[in-house]
Amino acid sequence: MKIATFNINGVNKRLDILLTWLGTAEPDVVCLQELKATDGQFPRAAIEAAGYGAVWRGQAAWNGVAILARDREPVLTRTGLPGDSSDTQSRYIEAAVNGILIASLYAPNGNPQPGPKFDYKLAWHLRFNQHAAALLETGVPVVLAGDYNVVPEPRDIYPTRSYDDNALVQPESRAAFRSLVDQGWLDALRKIHPKEELFTFWDYRRNRWQRDAGLRLDHILLSRKLRRRLTGAGIDREIRALEGSSDHAPVWVSMRD
Q1: Distance CA 224, CA 186 (A)
Q2: Which of 27, 45, 192, 251 sees the fewest Cβ atoms within 10 Å?
Q3: Which of 145, 150, 156 is nearest to 172 (CA)?
Q4: What is the pLDDT of residue 145?
């Protein structure tokens, strides 16, 4: 079973790239972020024609998350992160696929910091961690996949001082991610590549892709029941190189059925 996450940065604008990648990579499950489309604008017909069922929660202009499943329909279980009924941003969705609970998440960026956007980021991560702990307690196999908007460690960013004030690398952001992993979740990409330089995002500005000036923002975490099933993980960097591509590359894991 192959599970992937991809911040598509506009699902309609980059639909051709998404469909090309689906056809070549053939993931069984895909978590998408930054749909930048309302529910009615989601390209359901094109995705179904590619062989994928889908559930999604859209939002005009920004945000939006989805879960795709090859040759089957995901069973929708949740369309928002619990803990704050006033939060209307489309950043979280859950569905059951082939006996596994899949979560697709798009965590807040948090910039500029300090300020209300950074406060929202930390509050969102706190709610997410609380929900993740509750999911672990159920004992069911769970995958938490998406754009966490956190650079976990200094080695997950190219050598630079330009991000020193950025919310993605602040001690509070990294502590939130570390607290999540410490619950018992497995950072699958790091498990398979413990010492390698790993980037999943390259900003469009300042030739960062051409210079390989990247960050690791996209993560797939596995619950305890899935640890022993993990067989591989990687980053489809070639997708980032395509003209008109997202500023993120797809990240994937493979597991024994």
Answers
A1: 7
A2: 45
A3: 150
A4: 99
> In whole angstroms, how far apart are CA 255 and each of 17, 97, 146, 189, 249?
25, 14, 18, 12, 20
Count of CB atoms within 10 A of residue 57's CB?
A: 22
How many angstroms separate the CA atoms of 122 and 169, rounded?
12
Residue stretches of the annotated binding site for Mg(2+) = 7, 34, 147, 149, 247-248
For residue 195, give the 3-state DSSP assignment: coil
Q: According to CATH, what is the number of the domain 2-255?
A: 3.60.10.10
As given in the structure block, the two tokens for residue 183 are 């619950």
Burial class (CB in 10 A: 0-12, 13-18, 19+), 244: exposed
pLDDT of residue 257: 86
Question: So which residues are the catalytic ones?
Answer: 106, 147, 248
- Give the global pTM: 0.98
Mean pLDDT of successive 10-residue segments in the chain (257 residues)? 98 98 98 98 98 97 97 98 97 98 98 98 98 97 98 98 98 98 98 97 98 98 96 98 98 96
Q: What is the residue-wise DSSP string for 116-166?
A: HHHHHHHHHHHHHHHHHHHHHHHT--EEEEEE-----SGGGB-S-STTTT-
Domain ranges of the chain: 2-255
Residue with tokens 């972020």: 33
- pLDDT, residue 130, reads 98
Distance (Å, whole) CA 17 – CA 1: 22
